[in-house]
Amino acid sequence: MEQRLHRIVVGTAGRGLIDVSAEVCGWCAAQDLATGLLTIWCRHTSASLLVQENASPEVQADLEAFLARLVPDGGAARYRHADEGPDDMPAQLRAALTQTQLSIPVAGGRPVLGTWQGIYLYEHRIRPHRRELVLHLLGAAGSEEG
After folding, report:
1. How far from 93 is each of 1, 70, 78, 128, CA to CA, in Å?
2. How many CA atoms within 13 Å lie on the side-chain side of 47?
3. Nearest alpha-carbon partner for 54 in 115, 145, 11
4. CA 49 → CA 58, 64, 81, 114, 124, distances in Å?
5. Do 130 and 42 contact (CB within 8 A), yes or no?
6. Which residues of the chain have pLDDT under 50?
7. 3 CB-side CA count, 13 A
8. Quick one: three-class SS letters along 70-137?
9. C-alpha span between 97 and 81 (Å, rounded)
10. 52-81, pLDDT tens digit by residue?
């Protein structure tokens, strides 16, 4: 077993999903490990990670509309914690309801994603931010076992 560690910095334009699949898959392929487990960790309390459909942008729009209804913005009128603005606590609640870590099997040197799946960073803050993802790959070199 071998392990690799890498960091990806993602600039966001504000609230929404950013597809990081190409960068994550490209890094995995370059590690020369045929099989293993990839862990992706988001180092923030107001952003998260999702594996989500990558074919229809309507899925992302519907997901955002759902979370807006479930966790509305509102600042001090709605939430006690608003140290960084009216979207601070809603962003943290959105992250609590989604995921800050993903575990994805690796086979043939690539994450085993379904046909319509992509890996997304989900920015929950309204303003642009720089987010850091940590990738940890634990695996074995050689031929893929099945």
Report:
1. 37, 10, 13, 18
2. 28
3. 115
4. 18, 14, 23, 16, 11
5. no
6. 146
7. 5
8. HCCCCHHHCCCCCCCCCCHHHHHHHHHHCECEEEEEEECCEECCCCCEEEEEEECCCCCCEEEEEEEE
9. 17
10. 999 999 999 999 999 999 999 987 788 988
What is d(CA 91, CA 57) in angstroms, rounded to the nearest whole number?
21
Beta-carbon neighbour count of residue 142 at 10 Å? Answer: 10
CB 140 within 8 A of CB 33: yes
Task: Name the residue among 21, 5, 16 with its Cα closest to residue 117.
Answer: 21
pLDDT at 144: 54
pLDDT of res. 76: 76
DSSP 8-state assignment for residue 15: S
Q: How far apart are CA 49 and CA 42, in angstroms?
A: 7
Residue 83 pLDDT: 83
Encode 5-43: b = buried (16+ Cβ within 10 Å), e = exposed.
Answer: ebeeebebeebebeebeeebbebbeebebbbbebebebe
pLDDT at 45: 96
